[in-house]
Design goal:
heterotrimer; A mainly alpha (501); B alpha+beta (216); C mainly alpha (500); A: 501 residues; mainly alpha; two-stranded antiparallel sheet; 68% helix; 2% strand; C: 500 residues; 2 domains; two-stranded antiparallel ribbon; globular
């Protein structure tokens, strides 16, 4: 298919991308309603316009591109990639029309950043941005985050998972494609439960810190959306520091961690198998990683005397670290201080945490803990092979829901993806360096974009050079979709160009 | 491809009008470009080197930019600062937390979307103000509202010992120098017309598409 | 063996390590002799002392640890690892006694840098050091490069049992079926290149203005450093001191020759020059060198560092080849890489250093074969995922002859590559701990772990001892490509466990 795509392939991909667009258009009616209630007339109209356009084009694709052909893995992946590039074109219309974005490109960047749950932002004057548009930013993150989870649990878990490149964190038999409907239902239910509990907890925190009841509810639900889908957009330019509340920060940390758990793990916990938390290779890897990195961050902050007391060190160091490791991107300190006040070791450790990311099959990005875990297990196996007599039988196991045997294929896949991720991080960094940014800052920003975190040291801002904006857009989507889908899409584009030329 | 281009053109045409007081100069203040090395009296902190105790010096009219660029220099210094109250006033017994923005949207060009002078993200500093000052605040910057502008005398705390907050101003006294108020966000006619046209078109198309699908 | 090492194992290891020390000691006598001839008695005495200690240890091992047990693969690994740890120890003695080092740790650093063919130096006042000591420094490159073990093999060949040590020395390719003949071939090639290279350098150095005698001295030392991709130079200003493009050109040729594997040399020797073009590694190496040079040139052009294109090419190409081949010569002062070359050009150098030369040569780094294999592996995996199953094929590469890429080879290549990356990053972490910026720390760390020797200024006599230890470990581990170190660690661990 990739070398000679025919009309059927295009129709299939367009059909499914159209479905997604249609859905997103419908969701746009929610902020439209809020805008009407709050009297934000212009924004209500913008949302209506955006919704109409999205629904129109989405439905048109479905109607005119309907075909009876079955959906293969590569079709599915390409459709997903296409959606992540095309849908933001429509979703960004209300953003542009809000008057807070300097150009269409900026609004598009913001949309992509939202759907990719990154949270790098090009917004101007966030503190005066209308509430309905703020809600839409958060909703886009939810759609992007939950969308990718569903894709991972279905498309990645099927035949694609066999290659060892893509992981879903799922427990089922990897040979058959899992049934989509129960998965979607579970994801909804889980998000709802966490949503209600999380929003209520945050609401309490907001009221305690001094916000009014309605304002508090708005902030609570928005922050829940930012934390649980590892997005990171906040409602205020001061990010989480605005609330001046350790309670809010603590609740957010819990939500961020919950968002970085794979939904397969959530499923296990849901069914009462809490021991999975201790034995799962990913949770162990992340736990070890967070502890180790936190120690190094602490050492760095201590040696540069950023925090001399343990209290603020724990509060701010841990929050930033959890935010980075779960690739959320919420902050309790101004981003500029990471450069001017945190020395060199602690920010470098944050970069490492961002690069590693969360669990596979969650809303978090990055290389994913399972790959790190499998690689370490592979290393252990190789070490034992070297040390033991030639004829000894070496079997290494790891635990994901059940004990499984470590296969060569998986270690190889993990290594390949790790290398691809490193290339992604480095390329973005080098491009930014080419435009004159300091290499340390460039790498920070590049890793933040590629791992869909969103912590920023100041490079991504409205006056950023447009080629870099484009580069970061590509990075965010490529990182979110873990390369393969983007390669599939690229293959398509190449064959189209070759066909026409 | 064509669809997307058309989309872009359409959307662009519906944007807010340009304001009547465009500011000259670049889009972003130079301080926001991370390539520009901050010109700090004190060098930035590095591991293994002790931080130097800076004598308390008075700095007039500091901006959030210089405070964050050179936190070591301004730590524990008494400064004067001016900014718009945004977000909320969070009471804490004898004090209250506010966030004071000193960006262009606060005083110079005014908030978006009343104009098209894009000056980058908001910049500001958190401040712990005395309750008496907090009670004088009438308007808080929000969508549709310009906040009061406060001018304060405060001590900049890189890390505040009492509250564990980072990069805040402990205000000893201040005044409200400009009262805020709501600003106009009226409905733009082009947009309303566009919407009025699109909605029936979309609804009609949907109905037709559903019928086509049911027939298949 | 390693689960329960016994006395005999320890004896075998000790014996062979002792033999290596003996070889080192004997080698030390050459500069000692020359030192006396050149009228540098105090420095020469230092060399004699070092030689004696080494030989005593070696002879003691030969006498007390004699055993009939033959060495197997694992023994060989441990001996290799120990030799690179202990060899510099005795090699450091004459350096320390020369009076140019702050502490023994400093001289151990230089000795390790020499044996690992790295080229980082913490010597104080290099420009006034005695000639024989300087010669010894460069000879450590030769010994470490050609392999301490190879030295022993040629002189004390004992047959099949020594295969293990050869492999442990990170040369997977068996050039000739008989290990001894392989050793002899390497000697022969080195000798021929030595004569030709030294002659060429001698001539170009004389043309550059040195007197005939000095030119010969410099030529010999420079050849040793270039062909063994080490990087020590007789003066602190490295190659810049000659101000001669001809010298740089000749050195460039020698560096390239040094970073080609001996297996390739063997094929070229047997009259198959076409190999040069078809070999996968050579292609990969050429590709990355050219690509990184372009990146570097773009960076230099963007910063406007050099006014003329020829200056840019001269400096840029030399530095790229020096970094990529793992040598470490500099025709630009190290500090200026940071202050005058912008950000992209040094970054290109870091990549070049990290990638390294061909496997089975004296170069360090990840090695071109791994880059080739991993790239092919990645492409194959992606193809397999996206294309229908029937379209997938078999992956091959060319090394002497067309070989099929097996899962085993792929996996080991990927593992070692990742381990190297981890080593680079951990070293950078240590640099960060001491307060250096990330780009500086990464540069120095890669330079140490890939045994290159370019320095942007962190390595100096004033360097923190902790960081010095980290770099020593990096040079050691990087040279041995992890396996030998792993085996040694495992061995030490089980020995300790056995005793308690």
């Amino acid at each position: 298919m990739l070398f000679r795509p025919d009309e059927r392939d295009f129709r299939l991909i367009g059909f499914y991308a159209g479905k997604v667009l249609f859905g997103v258009g419908l969701v746009m009616l929610l902020p439209a309603a809020l805008a009407i209630v709050l009297g934000e007339g212009n924004d209500a109209v913008s949302f209506v316009i955006g919704a109409c356009l999205a629904v129109l084009v989405g439905q048109a694709s479905q109607t005119f591109l309907r075909s009876p052909a079955p959906l293969s893995t590569s079709h599915g992946l390409t459709a997903v990639a296409l959606s992540y590039f095309v849908v933001p074109f429509f979703a960004c219309i209300p953003l542009l029309l809000s008057g807070h974005y300097a150009s269409y490109l900026d609004a598009y960047f913001e949309s992509v950043s939202a759907f990719a749950t990154t949270s790098l932002t090009l917004v101007n004057d966030l503190d005066h941005l209308s509430r309905s548009v703020k809600l839409w930013r958060q909703l886009m993150q939810m759609q992007g985050g939950l969308g990718i989870v569903i894709v991972v649990l279905t498309v990645f878990a099927g035949a694609a998972g066999q290659s060892g490149l893509l992981y879903s964190g799922e427990s089922g038999d990897e040979r058959t494609a899992p049934n989509v409907l129960p998965i979607v239902r579970f994801v909804w239910r889980l998000t709802l439960v966490y949503g209600v509990a999380g929003t209520l907890a945050l609401w309490a925190g907001m009221i305690l810190t001094g916000l009014g009841p309605w304002e508090g509810l708005f902030h609570a639900s928005a922050l829940f959306m930012a934390a649980f889908d590892s997005g990171g957009f906040s409602l205020h330019s001061a990010n989480v520091a605005f609330y001046r509340s350790t309670l809010v920060e603590a609740i957010l940390m819990v939500l961020m961690v919950a968002g970085a758990f794979s939904f397969a793990l959530h499923h296990q916990l849901w069914q009462g198998r809490s021991r999975e938390l201790l034995r799962n290779i990913e949770t162990r890897t992340i736990a070890a990683s967070i502890i180790l990195i936190f120690v190094l961050v602490g050492i760095g902050l201590g040696r540069s005397m950023t925090f001399v007391d343990f209290g603020p060190l724990l509060r701010h160091g841990l929050f930033q670290l959890v935010s980075a490791h779960t690739t959320t991107g919420l902050t309790t300190i101004p981003g500029r201080l990471l450069v001017t006040d945190w020395g060199v070791l602690a920010p470098a450790m944050l970069v490492t945490a961002m690069a590693i990311g969360g669990m596979a099959g969650s809303t978090a990005g990055g290389i994913k803990a399972i790959r790190i875990g499998l690689l370490l297990k592979g290393l252990r196996r190789d070490t034992r092979k070297v040390l033991l007599p030639e004829d000894a039988v070496i079997v290494e196991t790891y635990h994901v829901t059940t004990d499984r045997i470590l296969r060569d294929e998986q270690v190889r896949g993990a290594a390949t993806m790790l290398l691809l991720w490193l290339v992604l991080y480095l390329t973005g960094g080098m491009l930014a360096v080419f435009y004159g940014y300091d290499v340390t800052l460039a790498l920070f920003e590049s890793v933040s974009a590629g791992s869909s975190t969103g912590l920023t040291v100041g490079i991504v801002r409205p006056s950023l050079e447009w080629p870099l904006k484009l580069a970061f857009i590509v990075q965010m989507v490529t990182g979110r979709l873990e390369f393969i889908a983007v390669f599939a899409l690229a293959g398509y584009v190449v064959s189209v160009v070759r066909g026409r030329v | 491809m064509l669809v997307l281009l058309a989309l872009g053109g359409f959307a662009e045409s519906l944007r807010h009008p340009r304001g009547d007081r465009p500011l000259s100069g670049s889009l972003d203040p130079a301080a926001a470009d991370p390539r520009v090395e901050p010109d700090c009296p004190e060098p930035p902190a590095r591991e293994g080197q002790p931080r130097r105790e800076v004598d308390t010096v008075d700095f007039e009219d500091v901006t959030s930019g210089v405070l964050f660029d050179c936190p070591q220099t301004y730590d524990h210094s008494v400064v004067t600062y001016r900014g718009e109250v945004v977000g909320a006033v969070l009471p804490r017994g004898s004090h209250a937390w506010v966030h004071l923005n000193d960006d262009a949207y606060a005083e110079l060009s005014g908030p978006l979307p009343t104009h098209r002078d894009f000056r980058g993200p908001n910049t500001g500093v958190g401040a712990l103000i005395p309750r008496e000052l907090a009670e004088q605040i009438r308007f808080v910057g929000a969508p549709g509202t310009r906040g009061d502008v406060l001018e304060v005398i405060a001590t900049f705390q890189r890390v505040d010992d009492a509250t564990d907050e980072v990069a805040i101003l402990r205000v000893s006294r201040g005044v409200v120098t400009r009262v805020g108020g709501p600003y106009e966000r009226g409905l733009l006619p082009d947009r309303a017309i566009a919407a009025a046209l699109l909605v029936p078109v979309t609804a009609g198309f949907l109905a037709w598409a559903r019928r086509v699908d049911r027939r298949r | 063996m390693l689960i329960r090492p016994d006395q005999n194992d320890l004896r075998v290891i000790g014996l062979n390590t002792g033999r290596v020390l003996l070889g080192v000691g004997l080698a030390m006598l050459i500069p000692a002799l020359l030192g006396f001839l050149w009228g540098e008695p105090d420095a020469a005495t230092g060399l004699v002392i070092g030689a004696c200690i080494a030989m005593l240890l070696g002879l003691a091992a030969e006498w007390k640890l004699h055993t009939r047990r033959t060495a197997n693969w694992q023994h060989g690994m441990v001996v290799a690892a120990l030799s690179w740890l202990v060899g510099p120890f005795v090699g450091a003695i004459p350096l320390f006694l020369s009076g140019h080092y702050d502490s023994f740790l400093d001289s151990y650093f230089d000795a390790m840098s020499g044996f690992a063919t790295a080229g980082l130096s913490v010597m104080a006042d290099l420009d006034h050091v005695a000639d024989c000591v300087n010669l010894w420094r460069h000879m450590t490159h030769f010994l470490g490069g050609q392999g301490l073990v190879l030295l022993v093999l040629s002189l004390f060949a004992s047959g099949g049992g020594s295969v293990g040590m050869y492999v442990g020395e990170a040369r997977e390719d068996k050039i000739l079926p008989n290990v001894v003949r392989t050793a002899r071939f390497i000697w022969r090639v080195s000798l021929v290149y030595f004569l030709a290279g030294t002659l060429a350098l001698w001539i170009s150095l004389t043309t550059a203005g040195l007197t005939v005698g000095r030119a010969l001295f410099h030529a010999t030392n420079l050849f040793l450093a270039a062909f063994d991709t080490g990087g020590f130079s007789p003066n602190s200003a490295s190659i810049q001191i000659y101000h001669s493009a001809t010298v740089e050109l000749v050195l460039g040729v020698i560096m390239v020759a040094g970073c080609l594997s001996f297996a390739l040399h063997h094929r070229l020797w047997n009259g198959r020059p076409g190999e040069l073009l078809r070999d996968s590694e050579v292609r990969s190496l050429a590709f990355t060198t050219m690509g990184l040079f372009v990146m570097l040139a773009l960076g230099l052009a963007a910063t406007g560092t050099y006014d003329t294109a020829e200056e840019l090419v001269r400096r840029g190409l030399f530095q790229t080849v020096s970094a990529h081949s793992g040598t470490g010569f500099a025709n630009v002062p190290g500090r200026m890489l940071l202050t005058d070359w912008g950000e992209i050009a040094p970054a290109a150098l870091v990549f070049a250093m990290g990638l390294g030369g061909m496997a089975g040569s004296t170069a360090g780094g990840i090695k071109a074969i791994r880059i080739t294999l991993v790239t092919k592996s990645i492409k194959e995996q992606i193809h397999r995922m996206l294309l229908p199953p029937a379209a997938a094929g078999v992956v091959t590469y060319r090394s002497g002859r067309r070989k099929v890429l097996s899962a085993q080879v792929m996996r080991s290549a990927t593992t070692i590559l990742l381990l190297y990356l981890a080593l680079y990053l951990v070293g950078a972490l240590a640099g960060l701990y001491y307060g250096y910026e990330f780009d500086e720390a990464m540069f120095e760390s890669t330079s140490a772990a890939a045994a290159v020797g370019l320095s942007i200024g962190i390595t100096s006599p004033a360097m923190e001892p902790g960081l010095m230890v980290v770099y020593i470990l990096q040079m050691w581990i990087g040279r041995l490509e992890f396996i030998a170190v792993l085996v040694l660690t495992g061995f030490a661990w089980s020995t300790l466990r056995g005793r308690t």
